Amino acid sequence: MLPGVSYQFARERFRGPGPRQRDLAERVLLAVAASIVLDTVYVAVFGRTLINLIFKKNAGWIPASDPRPVAVFALILLFAVPAALAWAISRREGRQQKSVYDPTPPWRHAIDDRDPCFIRARTKSGHWVGGWFGNNSNLALHSPLDIFLESAWEMTFDGRFNQRVDGSCGLYLRLDDLEYLEFIDPQTTNEGATHDDQP
Questions:
Q1: Which parts of the chain sit beneath pLDDT 70?
Q2: Cα–Cα distance between 8 and 17 in angstroms, integer?
Q3: Would you tell me the crossing angle of helices 81-96 and 2-15 to the nearest 10 degrees?
Q4: Cβ distance 147 to 139 under 8 Å?
Q5: pTM metric for this prediction
Q6: Residues of 74-89 as b/e, b for ≥16 C-beta within 10 angstroms?
C-alpha cells in the first residue's frame, strides 16, 4: 500500500484533490490501484535485486546483519519514486490545462490585507446578523469554519445595519449555519451604519 499512498499524497499536494477524489473510499481505491501498478513494475524490474537484497542462500536474512542497503532501497521505491512520478504527471497535466491549482483556502483571500469592515450574514433560518470585523476579530481557516466579530450590530428585517448593540463584546458565527456572508466597505455603505459609527 505504501507506494500508492505516497503517490496519492504527492499527487494531491502538487495538483490538489480532483472532484472525484473527495470521497475517502475513492481515494483509498486510487492508492491501492497505484500500489498494485508500482509494486508490479518493481517486481518486473528489480525482482532479483530485491530478493538478493533481503535474503541470500548462504547468508540468510540480510537486514538482520546490515539493514542500511534495504532501508535506502525502501526509501527510494516507497517514497522517492512515487513522489517523482506524481510530480511528473502533475506537471504534464498542468501544461495541458489553463487553470492552476492554488492550495490557498478561499477564506485566506477573503481576509488577507483586509481593512476593517462591516460583515453581514444571512442564517439558514432566514435571519440577518452582522457586526464589525476589526483588528480584534478573527476568522478560522480550518474546519469547522467560524468567525468572531468584535462587536455585534442590530439588523433590520431586510438585512440593513441599524446601530451597534449596546455593551456588545463580540459576536461568534458558525459558518455552517449561514447561507452567505458579505464584507462591506464602511466608507461606501449608505445604510443605517455609517463610517462614523465604527467601534
A1: 16-23, 53-66, 94-113, 141-144, 188-199
A2: 9
A3: 30
A4: yes
A5: 0.46
A6: eeebbbebbbebbeee
**Cis before residue 116, ω within 30 degrees of 0?**
no
Cell 445595519 belongs to which residue? 161
Give φ, ψ of 127 to 5 degrees.
Answer: -90, 150
Residue reference for cell 525482482: 47
CA distance 33 to 45: 18
Chain centroid offset of residue 192 CA: 38
Looking at residue 192, its pLDDT comes to 44
Q: pLDDT of 54-82, one tens digit each?
A: 666 665 555 556 677 777 877 888 888 88
Distance CA 199, CA 117 (A): 10
Sign of CA dihedral 132, 135, 141, 144: negative
